[in-house]
Amino acid sequence: MISVVVEVKTVGKTGVEMEALTGVSAALLTIWDMVKSAEKDESGNYPHTSIKNIRVLEKLKG
After folding, report:
1. For this structure, is 41 an active site residue?
2. pTM strictly above 0.90
3. What residue segments make up the domains of the chain, in order of their start?
4. Over 80: is that where the pLDDT of 62 sits?
């Protein structure tokens, strides 16, 4: 299992949840691209690799 954590800070009044989620997604897609050749089965599928549970763990205002 691989975990990716992205921390985003801003001085603006807008939230940055989308930026954090995009960062995590980009990292996981990069890892997927790097390992897919090792797992690809004879039908061209990836039976074990998956991306799951992308979520915001914490949001602090202040």
Report:
1. no
2. no
3. 15-39+49-62
4. no
Structure tokens at 34: 């790097």
Q: Distance between CA atoms of 13 and 42, rounded to whole angstroms? A: 51
DSSP 43: T
Q: Please tell me the distance from the alpha carbon of residue 41 to that of residue 35, in angstroms, as a whole number.
A: 13
Residues 33, 41, 42, 58: which is the catalytic one? 33
Q: List own/partner pairs for 9-16 with CB under 8 A and 24 or more apart.
A: 15/59
CA separation for the pair 17, 58 (Å, rounded): 10
CB atoms within 10 A of CB 53: 6
- Report the distance separating Cα 5 and Cα 56, nearest Å: 10
pLDDT tens-digit readout, 16-45: 999 999 999 999 999 999 998 898 899 999
